[in-house]
Amino acid sequence: MAKKKRSDKDAVDNPRGVASLAEAKAWMAARGITEIECAVPDLAGVGRGKIMPVSKFLSGPTMNLPLSVFFQTISGDYPPYDNLVDSVVVDSDLVMEPDFSTLAIVPWAQDPTAQIIHDAYHRDGRPVELAPRQVLKNVVDLYAKKGWKAVVAPEIEFYLVEPNIDADYPLKPPIGRSGRPEIGRQSYSIQAVNEFDALFEDMYDYSEAQGLEIDTLIHEDGAAQMEINLLHGDPIVLADQVYLFKRTIREAALQHKIYATFMAKPIADEPGSAMHIHQSIVDGETGKNIFSDADGDPTPEFFSFIAGQQRYLPAVMSILAPYVNSYRRLTRDSMAPINVQWGYDNRTAGLRIPPSSPAARRVENRVPSSDANPYLVIAASLACGYLGMVEGLRPTEPLEADAKGLDFELPRGLLEAVAAMQHSEEIATVLGPSFVKTYTAVKQTEFDTFMRVISPWEREYLLLNV
């Protein structure tokens, strides 16, 4: 049967994405859009770009940004460019091309505003190998060459906190509709979520307007800690959705004079926040899950995918846990994993196999923290599974006991994680040597910036005692 051609009306009515510049023009005209935000996600997952009148965008949708946007640290600094890039071209412009499938409105904007994600290219047409969205595309292409297609479903945890304008003061839970801050543990509490109903109604409205598909909302273990689960799908589409969702929940929270934070460990005595990634691989032609055979039993590819995660996740830890704060989450006395053990429905292990039908058999990577760049964390996790399958690796035996009592198998800090990535030739081959070199240089610079700060702990215990 011939594929039905999409009509102009279909394109205009679609809340998210069009196929061409011509459809974009009609889409924006139907909504009275006057401005458009043109962004490209950087190494931290921050959108960098320009805001311009729609008339300017439609006259030439490409934009230029300097190469240095992919070298910026989270604090706005830059690593030394020696051996990273020719100093002559460090501030040379890149060409940013819009991906029209990402066109959506900005529902919280005062004036009718659209947004669109761009991909970065060198002037000779080559994709920019440092761009996180391109890193993920490269991994997806590796799967495609094997006849495979990855399917992912992210789960993102975050905290709601009182506005904090002085970084010297710790964060506190916000006041809900009852007029009281949340205390104690409220895991899966409907009532605790209802405390912020007005905020979440805005979040759902904003998400629907942008075509973001939220599966479930739950209350997590920490005070005013929530989790959003997104529907499973294509890795690039889901990474785009996480990137947009983070901004959406921040904006919805600000409407209610609350902060939403995706820090891995924002409050000392509360649990950390994770970004769990559910992963399965299907045959590119049939769409059948290659983790299950015709009888519904697990396949060698399933076990090799797990083994690849076990072997290589430590080497990409600086992506899964990208900041010094990230490692405060990964402690033995919490539900965050400290190793790469795996087990069937074992939430204490780094790799969990959820109960499912054979068609939905998948591997849940519980190591990443919510502060991670969604493009890079999905790319890194899939890269590890890919290496396991192409190398035919075999995993350890599944763990039935509590994995928290076992040894640490993951890097304990940022510098250790950076070194692990630098020493992995396999990861450099899959993610790109230029990316690995630049990413680790940025992380080292961020650590240097952190070391210039004297913490309250040091003043408390060292000031008069040493």
UniProtKB/TrEMBL annotation:
<comment type="similarity">
    <text>Belongs to the glutamine synthetase family.</text>
</comment>
<keyword id="KW-0436">Ligase</keyword>
<dbReference type="InterPro" id="IPR036651">
    <property type="entry name" value="Gln_synt_N_sf"/>
</dbReference>
<dbReference type="InterPro" id="IPR008146">
    <property type="entry name" value="Gln_synth_cat_dom"/>
</dbReference>
<keyword id="KW-0460">Magnesium</keyword>
<dbReference type="InterPro" id="IPR027303">
    <property type="entry name" value="Gln_synth_gly_rich_site"/>
</dbReference>
<dbReference type="GO" id="GO:0004356">
    <property type="term" value="F:glutamine synthetase activity"/>
</dbReference>
<protein>
    <submittedName>
        <fullName>Glutamine synthetase</fullName>
        <ecNumber>6.3.1.2</ecNumber>
    </submittedName>
</protein>
<feature type="domain" description="GS catalytic">
    <location>
        <begin position="132"/>
        <end position="466"/>
    </location>
</feature>
<dbReference type="Pfam" id="PF00120">
    <property type="entry name" value="Gln-synt_C"/>
</dbReference>
<dbReference type="InterPro" id="IPR014746">
    <property type="entry name" value="Gln_synth/guanido_kin_cat_dom"/>
</dbReference>
